[in-house]
Structures are given as structure tokens and as C-alpha cells.
Amino acid sequence: MMDLFFKPRSVAVIGASRNPKKDGNIILQNIIDSDFSGDIYPVNPSAEEILGLKVYPNVKDIPGEVDLVVLIIPARFCVQAMEDCAAKGVKAVIIEAMGFAEVGPEGKALQDQIVKIARRSGIRVMGPNCTGIVSRDITTSFFPIKDVPRGDVVLIGQSGLLAAGMASDIVVNRTLNINKICSIGNKCDVNENDLLEYFGNDPDTAVISLYLEGVADGSRFVPIAREVAAKKPVLLLNGGRTEAGAQAAMSHTGSIASNQRIVEAALRQTGCIKIDDFTEIKDIAKVFSTQPVPGGNRVAIVTAAGSVGVVVSDLCAEHGLEMPRLSSPIVESLREVFPPNMEPANPIDLWYTIEQLGLVKTLEVTLAAPLQDPGIDAVVLILAGFDYTIPVLEQRTVQKITAKYGKPVIICMIVGYNDYKNRIMEELGQDLPVFTSLDSGVKALSKLCAYGMRKRQQI
Fold first, then answer.
1. Is the pLDDT of residue 248 over 50?
2. DSSP letters of 356-404?
3. Are residues 342 and 249 in the same domain?
4. Could you tell me which residues are beta bridge partners of residue 325?
5. End-of-domain residue from the set 248, 263, 288
6. Are residues 209 and 250 in the same domain?
7. Structural domain span for residue 82
8. What is the pLDDT of residues 194-235, one digit of tens each?
9. How many CA atoms lie within 13 A of 38 on its CB side?
């Protein structure tokens, strides 16, 4: 049944509008602009044609079968629209209207009626109070989005931010190798368990990120999440961890936020990876989708500033990463470019070498060396936004080196001029995870290493 949401053969938009500023017009345009090749049916009793498509006064008047319906009409009209969908034989509905359980008892009563109709008629419902789906094949968001990539990361959440603002950021700026984004809102029917199971079995999905304000069915969530997390990383951000957050969740999606101790227990039992905010949902997913999974947590630091190496060493220790000595052969290879009075060590301090050789030639030795060391599992590379870094971008030095050795590398950048820093973020960030915070970068790497060690224990 979940295929009807993501691979429908036909879709109807109830509430389609001629006004380009209205949600019903934007949703229709998004579907047209996607790679959707099926039949598209606008439904509006007051129009004959919208965006070049024939309009029908009611979903029951559509001559062909309808796999998926998007409802973007006021909440008070959605119950009748659901009855019409049932009469038509529709089996999947996305309700993007607000005004249901999240607003109080009256809205909850409307939502309950919709659930009753859906169960009676065998209809699966996503939402209400959601923005649906963003994907290359079909986008139902009421935020204009084009050219969604065919990546390997899926985001699922009780948040319109995921399928609107964050989706636009990801798609336009190409900051994440996204495949699909699903906004599930109040979860009156389709919930995280359905989607986690679906994408767990999807060969095109490598990483799954979840934002939840409440777990729909903990007894079902735990075994599903455990099974999926054993095959691919599952990142979980739990909203409503505190009393203040729980109160906010009630007015946002009508969720009774999960008891944090229950969620923590579920994280331990399932192997899901705990995420703390929306930035991490994107950034840590980027690490998992672009970097190989290491077998351990032994890290080398490559930096142009000794003080940064000290701070990153502290952060590594705080996040459970080890900083081993470099092996003797690696130290010998580094001596070729280090000044005679400076002993190569971990962290690897590059500044004197950069002054003599430039950053490109320096990295060809000093970044490659720890990646060749059998006692090193991953590398943190510190770059600066100055002109001497630009040749590294132009020659794709970091990408070429990292591609050779099959070990994860994350990049942190904390100083420099905005023009250069933006180039590093945009150009290097297309292929590798780049962080402007040392703590964020090290934390993300620690999540990857912990996942790799857990996978190794399962073998």
C-alpha cells in the first residue's frame, strides 16, 4: 500500500486552484514539475482548466482510476471529501489541511471521523496537518520545489519544515544526497512504523532520518527499528523530550510526546542513532551517506593550527574517539616534508609544511599518510577559508586522496574570509561533509564510528 504514496499511477488534487499564490496551485505545479508520468486530475467545482489540465468538480467525476488523492481544502470539508474518495475507490490520501487534533477537541473529532471512514473503506491516510512528500517522482509539498535529486537519504518527520523549508534548502543548495522527504503530521493513520518498514526494504535508501514528537506504537516501533537499523543507519531526533517541548508538541501535531526514558530505552534496544537537533538530522545524514563506515574509533587530526589540534583532541576524547600514535612507517613518510626540528605526531600540524610546499602538495603527503596507517580508522581535516586553500578546491585534492583509501574524512572550517569559506562549503561540500563547528564535526564522526563498531560486533 505504501507504494501508492510514492509510485502512484494517477493523482488527484482536491482543492486545486487557479491562483498561483494558493497552495492548491503550487501542489499541482510541483506534481507537474516532478518526473511523475501518470494522470493528474485537478478537482475544483469552480474551474474548468488549471495549468493546462482539465478540472473535475468532484473526485467521483474523474473517469479513470485514482491511486492517490491530495486534500488541500479547509478541515471542515475534508470529511465529505474522504467519503467521496471512498466512493471512488481511492486507496491513498494525503491530507495537507490544518485544523485537526493539533487545535483541540473539535479538530480531534474531525480527525476521528476521517480515521473511521479510512478504516471502513481500506484507505491509507498520511497526515493531516502535513506537507506530504518531496521526491523526484512526485512532490506534494505546498512549497515550490524542483529538481529533487535521486539520492539515498530519506527524511521522515512530524514537521512541515522537513518537506518545505529544509527540503528547499537541500534541493537548491545540494547539501544532502536526498531521495525522499515525508511529512506525516498528526499521524492519524500512516506513521513512522509504516514508513520505517517500507524504506528499510527499499534498495534505493541507504540512510533514514526520523523526527518524531511521539511514537505511535512503541511495541511495534522497537522490533521494526531494530530490524531496519541492523541493515542501514536510522537517525532519530525526538521532539518533546522536556515538559516545555511536550506542551509545544501538543499544539504542533497533537502528539502526546514520548517519555524520554522510553525513547532512550528504545534507542538502546534498536541501535537507532540519537540526534539532537534539525541541523544534525541533515549533517549527520550527510556523513553516513558520503563516508565509508569504519571498523573502529581511532582518529587522526590534520590541521594547519596547533591550537585547533589541541581543541579537537579534547573533543575526540569527549565524544569517545581515540587519538593513537601514528605508526613508525607513517612518521617516517611525514619526516620527508616536516622541518628537521619538528617531530611528526598526531595531531599532524601542517603550518610549516604549507609555507614551504603549499597546501596541495602538503595534503598529498600529510592527508594520505594517516589514511594509509592501519592503526587509523578516520581523519578530521581542518581547513581555513584563505586564498592558499583555493588550489585544493580547483584540483579536487581532498576528493582524490580520500577516494583512494576507503576511510572516512570529515572537514571542519572555523576561520577565513566569507568568499573563500563559501566556496569551500559549496564546492568541497558537494562530495564530503564540511562543518563550520569543530564540535559538530567530531560529534558526527563519533556517531559514524560507533555505528561501525556496532556493525562489526554483529558479524
1. no
2. HH-HHHHHHHHTHHHHH-TT--EEEEEEEESGGGHHHHHTTHHHHHHHH
3. no
4. none
5. 288
6. yes
7. 3-288
8. 999 999 999 999 999 999 888 888 889 999 999 999 999 999
9. 19
